[in-house]
Amino acid sequence: MKEIIEKAYAKINIGLKIISKRPDGYHDLETIFQQIDLCDTIKLSIRKSNDIVIKSDNKNIPLDENNICHKAALLFRAASGLDFGLTIHIQKEIPTGAGLGGGSSNAAAVLLGLEKLMAYKLPEKRLNRIARDLGADVPFFLVGGTAYAEGIGDKIKTVRPFPDFFAVLVYPNIEISSAWAYKNFNFNLTKTKKIIKLSRIIQNRICFSDLKDYVENDFEKIVFAKYPELLKIKELLYRKGAFLAMMSGSGSTIFGLFTGSEKAEAARKYFSEKYKCFLTQPKK
User: What residues does 44 pair with on adjacent strands?
Assistant: First the structure.
């Protein structure tokens, strides 16, 4: 096999609670990751030389060693002991700086794709360690689906999928750095709702359609303060019939969850007049 194509699916965060700041500078958190069917396409091709080349028609991603896919390929090569060159072609659909995990998903797709392409399976613990070194969200994308996450987002427990829903993603053409969001996070601004542990939701103790009353994204206050347009989008999603509207990750995408396709499509059509929008469903 000299070439393989992998789909790299996006995620949304259904609730995101920042628990504490760690001595190493990272933050412990609690979240529910939900993979959705919006995806990038990653094509891996073996090269005769041993260099690693990144190609993409997207101008918003680096095409050098700063690309997370380049780092993933180097780490896989070092861990496997295999000598190979690689061309990684990235066809982007997931917006960058959007809180949808596009870069992390791409990196996981490279790791999983290389296992197939090179017919070499890394030990699970080694693969997970590489994923964690690449980024806190990357371990989730090795498993996908629906998962409860703790630690820095790297302690993953796959859970029963939520009931089917339609998700309208509204990307307001704003890129938000996760590093900026964490640096400016203020614990004093987060206690507003009757917040519960998200583990209660995945244990089916809270009705999925009642999530609005129990979960929130702790990053919303600082992000909305700087970008008030995002709060307006969230409010409009509720007015359009979403049973839950929330920012994903550290932003800037705002998503609305709908029980029916007609209201979801109407909302997508409404927002697409001004923003980049996607109508998605959970990735099974």
Answer: 4, 88
